[in-house]
Specification:
Layout lengths: L1 H22 L2 H16 L3 H5 L6 E3 L13 E6 L5 H19 L5 E8 L5 H14 L2 E4 L8 H15 L5 E6 L3 E2 L1 H8 L8 E3 L1 E2 L28 E2 L3 E5 H12 L7 H13 L6 E2 L3 E2 L18 H7 L2 E2 L4 H15 L14
Parallel strand pairs: 2-3, 2-5, 3-4, 7-11, 12-13
Antiparallel strand pairs: 1-4, 5-10, 6-13, 7-10, 8-9
Helix pairs in contact: 4-11, 6-8, 6-9, 8-9
């Protein structure tokens, strides 16, 4: 009788523990993610960046041969599945190139992504897209959030190899709205070779919540100890000297899982202590938009006030980006009363 009661108690305990883990699977996932982050931060940059190896799976043919480099090269950071975003942005490239000419600036746009974890069908589609548009640079790495540092470093590797003399490099995520007129105006009279520009984070601390994508384990960076100032990774601009020094410095530095903090924070502070981050003041990190077109505008602005006053806004859906581009077109061309566009609720 005693053994039977013991068996029942043990069975109930086992089932309860099993159900608990089934209900809250995050602990095991978080532990695995912590181990991945620790592995990254114990890795010297050059062992993953592979500076002496050709890791490119596809690039635009003859992209630099026989033509002078642009004043600014914009590398749009994208993922294989984001074809709609790439198509939307491509439709804007010519407009932006013409806009740059008004400032006596030449500009070129390319997409950068990883392809090694794609199946054969997906890779065929990417190669077809790249062959058609000649604007894809595909590197041999897995597209994961924790590989964003590797992604940015491989991007710098490719740019330094293919565009070594380009004065300015802009790194841009594919969910970001840019008002290039404001950016070009910002760049006037800047010390281009030594430039780092974007939205500086000067009082950032490690996130202690293991469920956050920004989580940093205390074993990696002590909770409560601030990060060095760094530029928000959705959009920043690097001068030629800065770009080259950051890449070289990254090779001899242990990696960090937040790419913007790694390159423009840790590596910058170590190898370019004399270079600060210049703020693009019209940089809006998040916009909370409603369905009413007149509430698109931040702080109660009207649509064209928004266009004239916001240089960068990120984390936007394809529909929101389309809406923003239309606003830009109408306001730029003086069709103020034509701005009757609904930005969809999401």
């Amino acid at each position: 009788m005693h053994n039977r009661k013991l068996f029942i108690v043990l069975t109930i305990t086992f089932v309860s523990v099993y159900l608990l883990f089934k209900a809250f699977p995050g602990d095991g996932e978080n532990e695995g993610r912590t181990q991945e982050i620790v592995k990254i931060t114990n890795t010297l940059g050059k062992s993953w960046i592979l500076p002496d190896e050709d890791t490119i799976m596809m690039e635009p043919l003859n992209s630099t041969r026989g033509t002078p480099p642009p004043y600014m090269l914009v590398m749009v950071i994208t993922s294989p599945a984001n074809q709609k975003r790439r198509s939307l942005l491509r439709n804007q490239f010519q407009t932006w190139e013409n806009m740059a000419k008004n400032w006596n600036i030449t500009i070129k746009f390319l997409f950068f992504l990883g392809g090694s974890n794609e199946d054969e069908t997906s890779m065929d589609k990417l190669f077809q897209e790249g062959s058609q548009h000649r604007d894809l640079v595909i590197d041999d790495f897995h597209e994961t959030y924790l590989n964003l540092t590797l992604k940015s470093c491989r991007m710098l590797k490719w740019v330094n190899l293919r565009y070594p003399s380009v004065p300015l490099l802009a790194k841009l995520d594919d969910d970001v709205y840019i008002n290039w007129d404001l950016i070009f105006g910002f760049l006037r009279n800047k010390d281009a070779p030594n430039l780092i520009a974007g939205s500086p984070f000067s009082s950032a601390y490690p996130v202690a919540d293991p469920t956050s994508k920004f989580y940093t384990p205390p074993i990696v960076w002590e909770t409560g100890t601030g990060y060095p100032t760094y530029a928000c990774g959705v959009f920043y601009i690097l001068g030629k000297r800065v770009r080259q020094e950051l890449y070289k410095g990254a090779l001899s530095t242990r990696l960090f899982h937040m790419e913007d903090m790694f390159l423009t924070g840790i590596v910058r502070e170590r190898f370019l202590p004399d270079v600060g981050i210049q703020e693009i003041k019209e940089y809006i990190s998040t916009l909370h938009l409603e369905g009413n077109p007149w509430s698109i505008l931040y702080s109660g602005w009207g649509p064209c006030q928004f266009y004239e006053g916001v240089a960068v806004a990120h984390s936007l859906s394809v529909k929101r980006l389309q809406c923003f581009f239309r606003i830009g077109y109408f306001c730029k061309n003086g069709f103020v009363h034509a701005v009757k566009i609904l930005c969809p609720k999401e």
